[in-house]
Amino acid sequence: MRVLFAALASAGHTHPMVPLAIAARDAGHEVHFAVGEEVHAPLAAHGLRPFRPADAFYELYAEDLEPELARLRPDLVVHGWGVPGAATAARRAGVPGLWHGFGRLFPAGIGLERPAVPGPPHVDICPPSLQDPDFLAAADRLELRPVPFTGPPAPPGWHVRRTSRPLVYLTLGTAFGTAELLTTAVKGLAALDAHVVVATGRVRPGDLGDVPDNVTVHAWVPQADLLPHVDVVVHHGGSGTTLGALAVGAPQLLLPRGADQFANADAVRAAGAGLRLLPDEVTPEGVAEHVRTLLRDGGHADAARAVAEEIARMPSPDEVARRLPEHAERG
């Protein structure tokens, strides 16, 4: 069977789809990946045949994909939530399609078109306890365990350095981080008796200035390797980091800035697995106080571990890949 995956050209949209694409390849299917060149390297490294349709860079439109559907003649199209044009192209071509989510169904008004429900089935990587209740009630869902995919190899000399002190991980992702917010968070975290690992993303590490000895700053870290060792994650509320922390049972402090981050923060807080600071509430003292609470209060860790157990019970990428021919036949 030939399967075409399609996504927005960003880590937050492409990486959640990679585990299923790899599993489909391992199951013997021919896999192609339509996406802008920004994320081609890690896809090519896993044999997923990435290509840029037409003149697409970030977004994909139906007109970009239609010639490729005629060329490849796939049996199934797996299209990310961020590329409704790919769903339109598949429908016009009479090719069965599956939506592929990147987390909790995002709220309206964040700059993405929400997928139609009911409609094609959704590969849903969000644990049901955190998923939007209306989406759970109305959508045709194919549950898939969220599996982290970090893309590039670890930087030279990278290793997780555990000490007797708690390990706190700070990241603001690749789109919303600023030197000001990172500096504020670092100042608060540095006051704790903890080892703090910071991934600066789009901010240059040097922009944070001198940091205390208990703070280690990197431009990027292999998050999937680090998360199983952390005691608390402080982050922006992006879906990938939110699910990654939940999967290892780590409590979280969320500092949402935009997009779906506020909804993710609300869901994590409602589950008892973390705390939240809104933009006008973020101070060094507030960050330190909230992380200190997460380190001392076992209730948040217990709630996070309960969600981790729920995630572990979700079907693996290999299990879902074995069901893909059923969805091709349904078309």
Write structural notes for this entry.
It is a single chain. The chain has 2 domains: 2-146 and 315-330, Rossmann fold; 167-312, Glycogen Phosphorylase B (Rossmann fold, 3-Layer(aba) Sandwich), CATH 3.40.50.2000. α4 crosses α5 (84-93) and α7 (179-190) crosses α11. 37% of the residues lie in helices and 15% in strands. It starts with a strand and ends with a helix. It is of the alpha/beta class. The longest helix has 15 residues, at 298-312.
Question: How does the SSE layout of this entry go?
Answer:
Blueprint: E1 2-6, H1 11-14, H2 18-26, E2 30-34, H3 40-45, E3 50-51, H4 62-72, E4 76-80, H5 84-93, E5 97-100, E6 122-124, H6 133-138, E7 141-143, E8 167-171, H7 179-190, E9 195-199, E10 215-218, H8 223-226, E11 232-235, H9 239-247, E12 252-254, H10 261-270, E13 274-276, H11 284-296, H12 298-312, H13 317-321, H14 324-330
What is this entry, summarized?
This protein has 331 residues and is of the alpha/beta class. It has helices at 11-14, 18-26, 40-45, 62-72, 84-93, 133-138, 179-190, 223-226, 239-247, 261-270, 284-296, 298-312, 317-321, 324-330; strands spanning 2-6, 30-34, 50-51, 76-80, 97-100, 122-124, 141-143, 167-171, 195-199, 215-218, 232-235, 252-254, 274-276. Helix 4 (62-72) crosses helix 5.
